[in-house]
DNA sequence: TTGTAAGCGTTATCAA
DNA sequence: TTGATAACGCTTACAA
């Protein structure tokens, strides 16, 4: 490892001078600067972030916690975060929490021990522990009043999903509700519920998780219990895919007999047949904005508490009928 | 931030003593040990990894580089890595390389600057840069003779895929070849090619990437150029899904008229309809083994160069015919 | 414009 | 069994 000391020797100056040119701090003669730069170049010197970090109590590290990177919505978020951070010279420590508070606490410890400068969290809204860290935290795809957060317009999304099915003629709708403890899931559920409630169609509600493991059995159960369903508002695209598969398996015509609308717009939607109509959340953008917001609160000392809501949109594909057909 | 000094004061001893109980190093009287532990408890003290890292030139950080976490195969790998590492008390710095050498170099710099202890890389086999780091590197789902690597048995996988289609009666097979610069892709391609070559069936080869963005057009092209194809060996599951969709779109009966076999066994396979038959790569296990291998080479000083090949298996679902039917 | 030296939070050596 | 202290690589007063 080449240190500042060696650079100083090579350039025939003191370490202080090298440090000055490194940080463009204080006065340094043009000549000396060049000499130092030459030495740096020659030795391929790169300052040791660890030493800097120790002195400054800062770092170029950001923590990112997601419930499970294996769930296809999160890689998009993570990628948005990473791309922005990387261009700002920051790097990512990442952890999967499985929505498990113990694990979260472990990461919090790890983050603290590594002088992580800020955290982006897509995990449970149980944020008591996070407050202890005393560094900026931005919630991503999660909402909690005490923290800045970046999320998509769940109310609009829920309404949109319900209205789409209604407009296109579903008369017996099954509404799949996501995890009840997740505010975003609850919000879009409530919004859809409200729309259905104001309509004259028949509808029912089923609970489900967001996860692939439960999706198939949820789908089976749905058609066993409500065989006459002609419209499904799924909790997310994973669940929607499972419903689609099960419907096809039972010989339903889609979208003629049954319309399905998903949520998220994960990449595979367009690979399904029929391709899944869904509510698009701008996941990559959300990640990017969360990172941007975090950078902003790093740069200014006063706490910010911005709530940033990004718009959702309906992506019309093949599991909903064309509106003219109604 | 509470430091070792404060703990020492609280316990009425010197920092050296605290350090000794922290690391269970050297002699320390039972009484004093208890006093120190009490102080630690009381102040919620946690040693600063940064300071340790500076002194020891070590850390609890591992670097992980993947081409693109957005590609559904990599989250499984990453999760396997993370779970194992986490249980060993290590943490992950992660980066997406986009197979871009410049980006890789940036991560290498970042890893070095943070005293990262080892790297797991699923990115290009252009490893010249990695050697410069002088820390253990384990290749994951990539192979290169100079590095330890963990990968799945591509030769068996390629053969299996071809044999499955052959056994089940495909007589006009299109073999989709993945990125030519990737040794694993090339190996499974070659293995499948070899099997087809020894058979008496008609077959053709098309080049494709692994990516979702190219998948649809590849699929279209496939059926435009080779409308009589009755068996497709896809480069991976993404491509297979696109082919499946396109085939369905064109009204083909699956698997009666056309069999499709994927590669990887990403989670969505079972959500498709018909569900995708595929060659299963034990991605999670691979990640875990790579992490294990890395830990091993961290613990012993001499370089290891283990090549670990995990078995693949055929997952029979609905895009291949039952073998009795032939 | 430059250099000396103290300090960031640890660990390890050495002396007591 | 304990405590001073130098060292890890860097930054920043302060002195020159």
UniProtKB/TrEMBL annotation, chains A, B:
Keywords (A to Z) from UniProt: DNA-binding, Repressor, Transcription, Transcription regulation
GO molecular function: DNA-binding transcription factor activity; transcription cis-regulatory region binding
Domain of life: Bacteria
InterPro entries per the UniProt record, alphabetical: HTH_LacI, LacI/GalR-like_sensor, Lambda_DNA-bd_dom_sf, Peripla_BP_I
Sequence ranges assigned to domain HTH lacI-type in this UniProt record: 2-56
Family annotation (SUPFAM superfamilies): lambda repressor-like DNA-binding domains, Periplasmic binding protein-like I
PANTHER family (alphabetical): LACI-RELATED TRANSCRIPTIONAL REPRESSOR, RIBOSE OPERON REPRESSOR
Designated name of the protein: Catabolite control protein A
